[in-house]
Structure formats: structure tokens, C-alpha cells
Amino acid sequence: MKIPKRIQPLVDDGLVDEVLSQLMSGKEATVYVVRCGEEIRCAKVYKEAAKRSFKQAVQYREGRKVRNSRRARAMEKGSKFGRDEQEKVWQNAEVDALFTLDKAGVRLPQPYGCYDGVLLMELVTDDEGSVAPRLNDIMLTEEQAIEDHAVMMEFVTKMLCAGLVHGDLSEFNVLVDSYGPVIIDLPQAVDASANNNAKWMLERDVNNMTAYYGQYVPALLDTQYAKEMWSLYEAGELTPDTELTGEFAESTEEADVEGLMEEINAVIEAERFRRERQKEAEEQE
């Protein structure tokens, strides 16, 4: 196929030898299947801010650190230079998260580097070498759902212990190969300790996954993994090896109205995200 303009510099530099096909186009980026030497990889081309339909960028950017004070001031002022720098931070966030979480033991595509807004990474495939399906495109047995839900809770725990919350985790951001779930799409990953929205984002992530697997195992719908995780995390007791129970005893203290409203808003936001992802998936079919 014709080489996209944004990928041409990578071809010129010998990082990409051939663009084979377009894999998908979402609200944040367009992904292509490319050949790099003898390996087949994927190239994620981030869309420019003006063309991106992702509307919650401010909530996700909170807490992201910029070491260069000049760049930080420019980003705060919103100058052209500042907006350009903000784009770089947004794009590099996924690369940083991929490397961090790979070391933490979370299954995700192996990153190879980000070059001027183009992320080169592993192409996740099935046993036949075809692109692995998304979780929402497959059917599960009850046994598979129980096993994979436990794996996802383990991944989310490891992410939180590494200081990150995915922020947009759902059945649309999980691929499934012969070894199980693979988490994708991390440009919106947030700093768990520095972002005030981290708690409800974690709850949304966990509840999205529990609701999906709960279709096959209704008993999962009564679990409280998100609350259990966050409680242990705040207490400094959460480790990558923590064995979660899915149980959580609510405090008997006077009701926290503000906290309750946050939970209600999180549920509303989760449903909005689910509908957006469903619409996106339908448009791509």
C-alpha cells in the first residue's frame, strides 16, 4: 500500500521497510502493519490534537512531570511551543508506560521506540499468525472467563504497584492470543499517586473488566476488587504478589457524600466510554 506521510521518515531511515496494511483507525491513532527486516510489527501513528476525538486529555495529563522548566511553563501558558511539547508528552506517555509495565510483568505489546509521533511495537498475533482478536470479539467459556478475569486483576495490581492506572481499560483495549489477555492502548495511563482522578479511573477499569467477564460468570459481579486494591495501595500494603479476595468491607463511618458523587460520576463516565468503544468497534466492522 501507499506509505503514509508520517511513516515515510521511518522508511527513509531504514526503521521500516514496507507498509503492508492499515490495521485500525481509532479516536487517538491509526495503526498500520509494517515489515521491519524479517519481522512484522505495527506502527501506531498518533493523530494531531486537532484531529483527535479524545476529549478528556486534561484529566489524564494531571500529574505528568516535565523536567525542563521552560517546557513546563510553555505548556501551562498554552503557546504553540507548549502545545507541541504537550503532544510529545502525550505520545511518550504510552512508550514510557509500555517499558515500565513490561518490566513489571504485565503482558502488552513489546515497544521498539517512538519516532516523531509514530510508535513501533510488537504485532500481537494468534497461532496462525493473524492479528489477535480483541476481547469483545471472542466468546469465552465460564472456565476461561474465571481464569482470564483473575489474570486481568493480577495485571491491574502489577500496574498499580508500578505506579500506573491504565485509565481506559475495557474489552476493547485487550487482545487475546493463545496465552491469554494482552493489554493495549496506554497513552492515557495516569500516575496513581499524582493524579486526583486515579482512584475512580482504577475503579472504572476494574469494573469494566469485571462487568465483561461477569457476562459469563455472574458471581464476579458481586466482587469488590477495585476497592480492595485501592485500600491496600493507600495503606502501602499492595504488592505484585498480593492475593486478592475480591471482598471489601465498607466503612461504617458517616457517609462521604463527595466520595459517593465521585463513584456515581465514575459509573456514568464508564458507561459513556463503553458506548463510545462499542460505536467505534461497530464502525470498524
Mean pLDDT: 85
Strand order of the largest sheet: 1-2-3-5-4
What is the number of beta strands?
Answer: 9
Task: Specify Rg, calculated over alpha carbons.
Answer: 19 Å
- Describe the main β-sheet briefly: 5 strands, antiparallel
Give the oligomeric state.
single chain
Strand portion: 15-25%
Categorize the overall geometry. Answer: globular
State the separation between the terminal residues, measured CA to CA.
20 Å
Q: Low-confidence segments, ≥5 residues, pLDDT <50?
A: 71-75
- How helical, in percent, are the residues? 40-55%
Order of secondary-structure elements: HEEEHHHEEHEEEEHHH
* Secondary structural class: alpha+beta
Helical segment count: 8
Describe the structure.
By secondary structure, this protein is an alpha+beta fold. It is 41% helix and 16% strand. The protein has 8 helices and 9 strands. It has helices at 8-12, 57-61, 69-77, 80-103, 142-161, 198-213, 225-234, 257-284, and strands at 18-25, 29-36, 39-46, 111-115, 118-122, 164-165, 174-177, 180-183, 190-191. The protein has a 5-stranded antiparallel beta sheet, with helices on one face. The chain has a two-stranded antiparallel sheet with strand order 6-9. Strands 7-8 form a two-stranded antiparallel sheet. Strand 7 and strand 8 form a beta hairpin. It is globular. The two termini are 20 Å apart. Mean pLDDT is 85; it is low at 71-75.
